[in-house]
Amino acid sequence: METGELIKKVRKIEIKTRGLSNNIFAGQYHTAFKGRGMAFSEVREYQFGDDARDIDWNVTARMNRPYVKVFEEERELTVMIMVDVSGSLNFGTVQCMKRDMVTEIAATLAFAAIENNDKVGLIFFSDRVEKYIPPQKGRKQILYMIRELLDFTPESNRTDIVAPLEFLTNALKKRCTAFMLSDFLTSQDYKNAMTVANRKHDLVAIQVYDRRAQELPDVGLLKVRDAESGQEFYVDSSSRAVRQAQADWWNECETRRKDIMTKSRVDAVSVRTDQDYVKALMELFSRRN
């Protein structure tokens, strides 16, 4: 992409997504994703109803009466945004490509994070971790991330959900809030990797999909290209059996995805490319409040 064109697109994304973060989300992001870590603050005398696990035995021994540790919630978060850059995201039939919507959602979340004074970083993944931008604070970091979201070219077109989850689990020592943005259209079993990642971090899954993955229109013979393998073939969309096969495939993928999210206890939301992602994010936030 030409430098001038890229700068214009970055600015356009910034104006839209920063406005959404400031005006629409207000304090809902902060409430939904407040610091989950607890930092030691002080000790005080034990009171009826206190958790016995919080007793500070050293102070108790010195004072000859029970004292408990008091913890404060750590308000500052580290936010990681994990973005699927595989070939299947370069698809869209109605208003925009899946990748365009993923970019806007990622930028909106990033601005919400810095408004809350959080550090924010980025992980691009295909069937491998393509790029890792370590978390930092500030507008400069967000603009760098938006530029990469708009102009990044992955080495691979294929998808592997496990690889970035394992990277997240191993690379980030401190607990973080991680948003994984993908279409999740894979036959891969990533439940264990998602469960482990969610135990260590606060993992949220955001599915972005196109309506034509859900249902094939009856428009006759279609030339189709598999975005991940590059294979081209013809599909007779006028055939009821073909349309049913597409619907069955979608339902199978969705059943698998929902089952994995439920069993791994990961908060998840889905948004279609012709729908309002703000509404979907607000629904996610309200569920966590």
Keywords:
alpha/beta; globular; 10 strands; 6-stranded mixed sheet; 289 residues
Describe the 3D structure.
This protein has 289 residues and is an alpha/beta fold. Helices cover 44% and strands 23% of the residues. A six-stranded mixed β-sheet has the order 5-4-3-6-7-10, with helices on both faces. Helix 6 (162-171) packs parallel to helix 7 and helix 7 (191-200) packs parallel to helix 9. The mean pLDDT is 82.
Molecular shape = globular
| Amino- and carboxy-terminal Cα gap | 40 Å
What is the CA-based Rg, rounded? 22 Å
Strand order of the largest sheet: 5-4-3-6-7-10
Helix vs. strand class: alpha/beta
List segments where confidence is low: pLDDT < 50 over at least 5 consecutive residues. none
Q: N-to-C SSE series? A: HHEHEEHEEHHEHEHEEHEH
Mean pLDDT: 82
How many strands appear in the DSSP assignment? 10
> How many helical elements?
10
Q: Estimate the helix proportion, in percent.
A: 40-55%
Strand content: 15-25%
Describe the sheet with the most strands: 6 strands, mixed
